[in-house]
């Protein structure tokens, strides 16, 4: 691929590739990058369209907000053109509803693949589905004006786009419950203090900081980074002894690969 190839541009999502770095951009700033089922399908397609050369994916949003969350049109009787309204979905069979939600979740799952490191560059509002999309990534760089909020519970719903797992792991159960139950804003200083944000920068420096971090991640050999990410992502579900075993196995693979490459 040549520098800055556009691989996909549809339904509010644009995917560009520059060698080992891909950028996924939410492209509807007039609606603060509000989300819809069509956008979720485009995000899923972007993940499937990534070339094998890509090692780092940067997620960003055009305009003043990263994403203001689900487009409220979803809750109107007419819903989106060509889509069932959420109200109609709630009246349908349970199995069908479960399958539809699972399809929506696909847009939020591929960001943590072991062969990639994903970075969310977040400015302004990241609310509901926007917050969960930022949480879907491995790392988050945020602007000083960032405002995270999980508003689903206050609307009579639950966060269902894979955000609860990373939120609890990052900030702990008690704080995660309080954030979700109250729907309050989490600003930059708290996000950095609690681990939601890896770095806080002025809004004008956000894209540059994401590029710098992507470059730093590319400095490590790919296979070593893949193995390290797999070790760390699985650590919380393993016992101490299981993690020791996993470390030995991973290091054995690396040493065998290094020995083989030197022959």
What does this structure look like?
The model has no long low-confidence stretch (mean pLDDT 95). Helices cover 45% and strands 17% of the residues. The chain is globular and about 65 Å long. The two termini are 31 Å apart. The protein is of the alpha/beta class and 263 residues long. Helix 9 packs antiparallel against helix 10 (240-262). The chain has a seven-stranded mixed sheet with strand order 1-2-3-4-5-7-10, with helices on both faces.
What order do the helices and strands come in, and which of them pair?
Layout: E1 5-10, E2 13-18, E3 21-26, H1 37-49, E4 56-61, H2 86-91, H3 94-109, E5 117-122, E6 125-127, H4 129-136, E7 139-143, E8 147-149, H5 164-171, H6 173-182, E9 186-187, H7 188-194, E10 199-201, H8 206-218, H9 222-235, H10 240-262
Helix pairs in contact: 1-3, 5-6, 9-10
Q: If you average the pLDDT, what whole number results?
A: 95
Head-to-tail CA distance between termini: 31 Å
Sheet-strand content, in percent, reads 15-25%
- Count of DSSP helices? 10
Name the strands of the widest sheet in spatial order. 1-2-3-4-5-7-10
- Compute the CA-based radius of gyration: 19 Å
Approximate shape: globular
Provide the helix percentage.
40-55%
**Structural class of the helices, strands and pairings?**
alpha/beta
Please write the string of helix (H) and strand (E) elements: EEEHEHHEEHEEHHEHEHHH
Give me the count of strands. 10
Low-confidence stretches: none
Described by strand count, sense and barrel closure, the largest sheet is: 7 strands, mixed
